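Example record

The entry below shows one chain as it appears in the dataset: sequence first, then structure tokens.
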Amino acid sequence: MKKKLKKSILSIAEDIKEFNEQVGVDNHFDIAGVKSFNVVKKAEGEKNDARIVKGYATTPDVDWVEDSVSLEAMVSAKDHLMRKGTNTVFYNHDTEQPIGKVLATSIENKGLMTEIEISKAADVESIWTKIKEGILSSFSIRFIPKKIEVVRDDEGFVQEYKILEMEMLEVSIVGLPMNKEANVTEVIGKSAESFFKKKDSIQSEERNNPNGGDDMNVLDAVKECIPGILKESLEAERKSTATLVAETVKSVIAAVDAEKAKSAQAVLDAEEKKTADATVIEGMITEAVKKALKGKTSRKGADEEDEEDDDDGGSIKKALKSATDEDTIKFVAHVMDDSAAYAALDASEQEKAKNLYFEMAGTV
């Protein structure tokens, strides 16, 4: 009977392993390494080891006090939590209540992913229970900011204190996170513990009823727990993938919208500047310059024309005085930008205007 049980368990283990490899899911409850019928005894000795909690220690989102941690800061500081001393995990940042240690950190699109192991100490049991029940479901980090960018709105009010560089001191499991997106995403150990409870129940029943039941009852317990284990594993993987895809799409859309808005604003700014420049140039033209142009572009009687020429000629000469004269600068800036005004000048005046324009531009 025991040989038959061993063979059946190993067959189930191989099926689980093959299934997980096909769907790309890690084993949450691995019995593929079982070498003897002592699988139950071995699992019983290890049942308290499955206390792994994964989630986002922090994200780039702005928290309740307008702080945010940039991805650049996370990248440079992610290994801080792996150092001896700072890899201790606390409950609610209370250094008198260490509850575990950091096993791994990595950067994902949403933020700093952290994997921790919860201690098996007696004083941590209630915290571990609350984590499994989802009552404690958030992370929070303690850090020293090294470089901060203050982001303000158009009126000068602070919108965000963006952490560009930091020294991370610790990560805690908390009931109320400062960053509402710093959440636990996965707790490993639920299905394993359900198996042990069922197995203990079966063994207790067998002890009370020696004539009923056999070794195959334990195999039935294993079989019954396997669908739950796979379901949890697949569900966690599905949620993780769906969340990642959704966040990525959201980020891409936001980036595209921001770029469109930026381009549209740039066009508006260019048009406004062009209009403003035209207004400034128009305002710079003195009455003498306008009169000079009027004299050059209108045809009058011989007497009037001679009289106007005398006056306008003086005005133009004044307007073409030197590259440092204010009226000259205004006049030359206008005629070099207005083909009709430029055509109204005679050849010598055009040459003078060009020379002054290049002189003002510093090219002569």
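Notes for this example: Residues 82 and 102 are 6 Å apart (CA to CA). The first helix runs from residue 2 to 23.
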